[in-house]
Amino acid sequence: MVRVIRKSTAALGLVLGAMALAVPAQADELRDAVGEDMPGLMELYKDLHANPELSFQEFETAKKLAARARDLGFEVTEGVGQTGVVAVMRNGDGPTVMLRADMDGLPVTEQTGLPYASKAKGVPASGIESGLMHACGHDTHMAAWIGAAQLLAERKDEWQGTLVMILQPAEELGLGALAMLEDGLFTRFPKPDYVLGFHDAAGAPAGAIGYAKGYALANVDSVDITVKGVGGHGAYPHTTKDPIVVASSIVMRLQTLVSREKNPLDPAVVTVGSFLAGAKHNIIPDEAKLQLTVRSYGAESRAALLEGIERIAKAEAMAAGMPEDRMPVVSVQDPYLPSTYNTPEFTEQVMAGLSERFGERVFETPPVMGGEDFGQFYLADPENIESLIFWVGGVPQDQWAKSEAGELELPSLHSPFWAPDAEAVISTATEAMTAATLDLLPRKGGGLARWRTHRPERPPGANAGA
Ligand code: ZN
Ligand code: ZN
């Protein structure tokens, strides 16, 4: 679902272009171990890529990965939130770290031409059969998830605490995280102190690590407006109340919510993505339907937008003299997708560790207006959970260079042409997730965690994610 990262700065492009993901000269045990695991992880990736499954239908994917986690010594439970998987490794006293990957593919017919391109087909909610593709890169997420699971299981004598690794279904519907929580993710299994995840990025060069502090992704509301009218003959408008004209006024007036009512420094989006009405030239219909996507970060901002939409719809109908019983009906889809909040101090701490390891490959990026349901885990207990999702760039270096030179339009996530440099994404993410986890957990034998010895004070209202 997420659409990630603006293009990074030209400076970053230069840095990354120049170093071309060069590995620092000094020996790094963890990086070497990732390198040794990469052939196996790429084999797994290609298999996952060739066999995508739709949201809440990730049966084979879940089964395959659950078996691997079991082999690594995790206690594995399948079928959590329909097709979700929870793998737990209890390793003595200490905090609980949760690592999340999402599993679903999309109803997109792949056109990458890769030798392991998907030929799978499936029937999404639309009812229309479609090719299926991991066009959002969730296959890279799962391969790195297994990569981190392997490395952390092998290093059990280096950390203590509890590791909860989850495979989440249906991120593309924005429903999988909630489904797992409602199925007892935090009650039947150890509740995490720290939640980590990553998403591949189609707007950053392969191997770059981007992060936003605070809000990272937006509240996403889907709003339907049914504009009622009084239908009749197109030649006799005075005998009707034309819902197309009213709906048109609503569309135009809605633009002022962001441009005139909102603080310009608090971003928001109101997009009317669908406007359906009428059947024939000379008939004024009795109904028009609008579909909106509404994006914001904070709870107040969201509430103000939704209130404004309701007000404008009603007011435009009244201005047209619509009878009392023909007022527009505004409905907001429930559940909505809440914004994703990266707890700031935690984000800084984790990223300081990753910056030491990855140097200039790590950069801060502004939040995006895309949505993700990763934020649900944090919102389940914002007082006690620290949370971070970061981006791992996937654009192959040669394509990145061409795009920086203005010679190439890059495909976005969800594009049938999105073919990330999977090797770079998986190796970077595996190393980053493993290193961050090792930094968060105390050393075996009582040493302190590298980063956390206390829980910081958070300013009131700082976590108003929903
Ligand atoms: Zn997606
Ligand atoms: Zn995604």
Number of distinct helices? 11
Number of strands: 18
Weakly predicted, low-confidence segments: 3-25, 452-466
C-alpha-based Rg, rounded:
24 Å
Roughly what is the average pLDDT, rounded to an integer?
92
Would you list the SSEs in sequence order as H and E? Answer: HHHEEEEEHEHEEEEEHEEEHEEHEHEHH
**Ligands and ions found:** zinc ion
Distance between the termini: 18 Å
* Order of strands across the main sheet: 1-2-6-3-7-18-8-17
Net shape: elongated
**Which band does the percent of strand residues land in?**
15-25%
Give your account of this protein's structure:
- The structure is a single chain.
- The model is unreliable at 3-25 and 452-466 (pLDDT under 50).
- By secondary structure, the chain is an alpha+beta fold.
- The protein contains eleven helices and 18 strands.
- α1 (10-19) packs antiparallel against α10 and α2 packs across α4.
- The strands form five sheets. An eight-stranded mixed sheet has the order 1-2-6-3-7-18-8-17, with helices on both faces. A four-stranded antiparallel sheet has the order 12-14-10-15, covered by helices on one side.
- It has helices at 10-19, 29-50, 59-71, 138-154, 176-182, 243-261, 299-319, 344-358, 375-379, 397-404, 422-440; strands at 75-80, 84-91, 96-102, 121-122, 130-131, 161-168, 194-205, 209-211, 214-217, 219-228, 232-233, 269-277, 283-284, 287-296, 329-332, 340-342, 362-364, 386-395.
- One zinc ion is lined by residues 1-2, 136, 172, 413-414.
- One zinc ion (ZN) is lined by residues 1-2, 136, 172, 413-414.
